[in-house]
Amino acid sequence: MNDANVELVRDLVSAVRGRHLHWVQLGSIGVYGRYRTGVVDEDAAVEPSNLYERTKAAADDVLMKEAAAGGIHLTILRPSMVFGDDMPSRWLTALIDSLGGQRPLLLAGGRGILPLVYIANLVEGLLACARRDPARPRVFNLSEALTVHRLMEIVGELTGVKQRPVSIPGPIAWLAAETLGRFPGFPLTPSRYEALTRMVEYPTERLKKETVYLPPMSVEDGVREVASAWRKRS
């Protein structure tokens, strides 16, 4: 992972040094670390917690130092969890399946926030970054918040199922994840509990204010599109 995310970037930077190219880097909000609550903007400290996040942060650091030395012009776009119908990762459709029944389980009332980016919005964000005046290096977040409860409502609207969700209190869900989530096959792992109960937002205001970024689709419409396509194939 270090070879792909860091060393390759280092080699490419060396190859283009001094040509004053505008480098648009696809980063990740993961570099900010594991916040549980709050609003995390582009000025937040970089505190990665796993190998992927550390390598993405290291690549950003390589590029920022090169930009500071005048070797490149730089824009870093940090998207949250990217989803789309044709993407190989099926985490969203698996979550949609779990919320599609009459008695879906909601952790802590479904108040957890999913930080999402529809794939078409990511493409538009990259294009907006490429079109900006790169006179100074800049970092932009790209994310849209959707609560787990709202995701359940969207799935219910699409399926026509009258849902009566069962809410599991946060402390009980955490205890189950910590004690039973280590066993193979148990659906609630500590990492899944964390992902479904975090209440963190990553504002995109800077990107909208300083570039021509205009999202082609809301995150809710993106979810509807993915869920509809998934149901047709199922």
Compact summary:
The chain is 45% helix and 18% strand. The protein is an alpha/beta fold and 234 residues long. A three-stranded parallel beta sheet has the order 1-3-7, sandwiched between helices. Strands 4-6-8 form a three-stranded mixed beta sheet.
Describe what this molecule looks like in 3D.
By secondary structure, the protein is of the alpha/beta class. It has helices spanning 2-16, 51-68, 91-98, 119-131, 148-159, 170-180, 190-197, 205-210, 219-233, and strands at 22-26, 37-39, 73-79, 81-83, 105-107, 113-118, 138-142, 144-147, 166-168, 199-201. Helix 1 (2-16) packs parallel to helix 2 and helix 6 runs antiparallel to helix 7 (190-197). It is globular. The mean pLDDT is 90.
Major pleated sheet: 3 strands, parallel
User: Mean of residue pLDDT?
Assistant: 90
Estimate what percentage of residues fall within beta strands. Answer: 15-25%
Level of helix content? Answer: 40-55%
Secondary-structure-derived class: alpha/beta
Number of alpha- plus pi-helical segments: 9
Radius of gyration: 20 Å
Number of DSSP E strands:
10
Spatial arrangement of strands, main beta sheet: 1-3-7
Shape: globular
- First-last Cα distance: 34 Å
Topology pattern, helix = H, strand = E? HEEHEEHEEHEEHEHHEHH
Low-confidence stretches: none
Topology (SSEs and partners):
Elements: H1 2-16, E1 22-26, E2 37-39, H2 51-68, E3 73-79, E4 81-83, H3 91-98, E5 105-107, E6 113-118, H4 119-131, E7 138-142, E8 144-147, H5 148-159, E9 166-168, H6 170-180, H7 190-197, E10 199-201, H8 205-210, H9 219-233
Parallel strand pairs: 1-3, 2-10, 3-7, 4-6, 5-9
Antiparallel strand pairs: 6-8
